[in-house]
Amino acid sequence: MNITITSRKVNLRDSFKERVEHKLAKFNKFFGEDTDASVTVSLERNRQTVEVTIKHGGYIYRSEHTDFEMETALDRVVENLSRQIRKNKTRIEKKLKSADFSALVSESTEEDTEETSFNVVRSKHFAVKPMDVEEAILQMNLLGHQFYMFRNIKNNDVSVVYRRNDGDYGLLEADEE
């Protein structure tokens, strides 16, 4: 696993970096050497936030926790990632074996030069992977997001799944006018 550690407004000790590598090494049994893990540690108002993002086989596993101690935050993040993987182990194993390309997320912060009444402060561009609705819901839950855009394998259209307030899921599909 390729681990990249980034710090914002905080100096990281070598012992913490070794701890991160040791904690993330337990995920090697699920992922191979071609997996990228990004760890970001930031300090804000005496609280330390640790965010871990693991990219493998078109899937993104992400967890974030804020605490007064960065070691405690790291422990919570690793526990959360373990829980996500255990919860969806059989589905993930099946999908990881059949994954044939990776959907890498790239972020763009370019501002629109056109003057409008709306202020777009961030835009994201990413490859839309063909998948069924169940797989899209799984990916949304792994990311911890409220919605997820994907290419529906049934009709090859771009669709969106989202988490409803009552705990169920919804599906948005485009119609021709």
- Low-pLDDT stretches are 99-116
CATH architecture of the largest domain: 2-Layer Sandwich
User: What class, by secondary structure content?
Assistant: alpha+beta
- In the CATH scheme, the class of the largest domain would be Alpha Beta
- The portion of residues assigned to helices is 25-40%
- Globally, the shape reads globular
Number of helices: 4
The radius of gyration computed from the alpha-carbon positions, rounded to a whole number of angstroms, is: 18 Å
Question: What's the pLDDT, averaged over the residues?
Answer: 81
**Largest sheet strand order:** 1-2-3-4
Can you characterise this structure?
It is a single chain. The protein folds into two domains: 97 residues, Ribosome hibernation promotion factor-like (Double Stranded RNA Binding Domain), CATH 3.30.160.100; 69 residues, Sigma 54 modulation/S30EA ribosomal protein, C-terminal domain (SHC Adaptor Protein, 2-Layer Sandwich). It is α+β, with helices and mostly antiparallel strands and 177 residues long. The chain contains four helices and ten strands; from the N terminus they run E-H-E-E-E-H-H-E-E-E-H-E-E-E. The protein is globular, with a radius of gyration of 18 Å.
